[in-house]
């Protein structure tokens, strides 16, 4: 059993305390027929279920496109929130109320099987207002601290439980090989060994608090070739055009480690391998994942990913399920998918055995989430806790990478600083994509976060220093530049320069302005990947990469003023030019090529 004993005890106490609530007043005849108390009960449950009830359990619909009565009518197994899809008010209370009502509806279905709710809490519970937003994975790759990863898993789990959700679509174990990919920041590193070392403790942290995990995207998502992207994407959801053996050599270890760590589920990947879509490839989803890697958990498809694997919906559903998908993430056309499952089973395109195997994995997943424990009501908790913020602040400090320092760092706390640049004072930019909205926000005060400017002001004002508005009064200039928020294919780019399509509009203007001031310059980059700085680096006395640090901007000043040491090292190669964007430590003759910075670089004491 993966559910912690403390969670079970809390569950039992909750059931007793909440016995007055309506849901628990549902008399047995309000409830569907299935009762599951042990894993062994699952087999009997499957025998009792009709084809329609089984079909419903293989559906994951989006919360905004299904009613409570439809959850009942169709025995729906799972609901998800797409990025930014939140209940009115977006408070823990609103989430818990929504999920409790969904479960009340599910218990009234003919099967009476509760739903399981999944979200992308990929850097803290980043859908939720006032939640703590942790650094994105690329920064955690730079921190390269397994103990920290476990702490982040635990802290994130607490803020997921606070809204009544049991299942997180994380971690991504993508090992991005070309930083023009819009999901580079969701990748810990170009080095699969660093990915494996960091993903495992994060999984352990989530599981230890009772949150189920999803290791994704199986397999090869970071290995697609530039200009092969799906639907005119430059690279996202593209084709892996190297040998399958070479792709596996760069990806498999993270899945082996995650399976060994008992990851609850695996999400299939949009990409194809040598022209064959993963979602329709039984050699990967069954032969490799099940027969070789012995993964016994659930495989969930990605968002409408089956639509590209076969001509008709009936064929897409049959191919996906027969290839090894157990739960179909079909946010909008879930009713048609429900009918397609029934059609395919009735026409022997999906065997009864395969259907039952998929249902079994869904029921085991829910059992592991403790969802059959007395159909407990969820109770709202707290997000944005001081405990979470403390972990996030530590993560920010450990993620910063010092790449140049000509005697201006650590900063003294009583000096005059002139701060400028488009990334100076914007928490939304610090958080990046997958924050409140799928594509992120440029809300300067997002989730009560602390911007770089807020953090500098806090330290300087307490020690006799100040932020000055006249650069001529300044001892040091701090220049903050970077990227705007983006997610997935919207972050694909063919131009990593400071005035590229995803770079902040005023980067270059600020770079040119500070150069004219003839003062010591510390440049801080807040971005989801390395950007091209070769033309400017010589003008800077110090340079720090801060990645996408999230809401706890004071983690940056902890190291800038020397209260904590720099420990970050580059998890990705830093290119000199766009032509080097696909360069990484796995390539031949890597050390013979001049890059801006190498994988693993970073000035540490
Ligand atoms: C997205 C992503 C996946 C995410 C899913 C649900 O398209 O590929 O990482 O978990 O949809 O939001």
Provide key terms for this protein.
2 domains, TIM Barrel, Rossmann fold, 17 strands, single chain, 20 helices, five-stranded parallel beta sheet, binds alpha-D-glucopyranose, 605 residues, 10% strand, alpha/beta, six-stranded mixed beta sheet
How do the strands of the widest beta sheet line up side by side?
A: 12-17-16-15-13-14
Count all strands and give the number: 17
What overall geometry do the principal axes of the alpha carbons give? Answer: globular
Which structural category fits the helices and strands? alpha/beta
The biggest sheet amounts to: 6 strands, mixed
Ligands, ions, cofactors: alpha-D-glucopyranose
Beginning-to-end CA distance, first to last residue? 43 Å
How many domains make up the 3D coordinates? 2
| CATH level 3 topology of the largest domain | TIM Barrel
What is the gyration radius calculated from CA atoms? 25 Å
If helices are DSSP runs of H or I spanning 4 or more residues, what is the number of helices?
20
- Give the CATH class of the largest domain: Alpha Beta
Strand content: 5-15%
Overall CATH architecture of the largest domain = Alpha-Beta Barrel
Return the average pLDDT rounded to an integer. 95
Helix content: 25-40%
Q: What are the segments in which pLDDT stays under 50 over at least 5 consecutive residues?
A: 14-25
CATH superfamily of the largest domain: Glycoside hydrolase, family 3, N-terminal domain
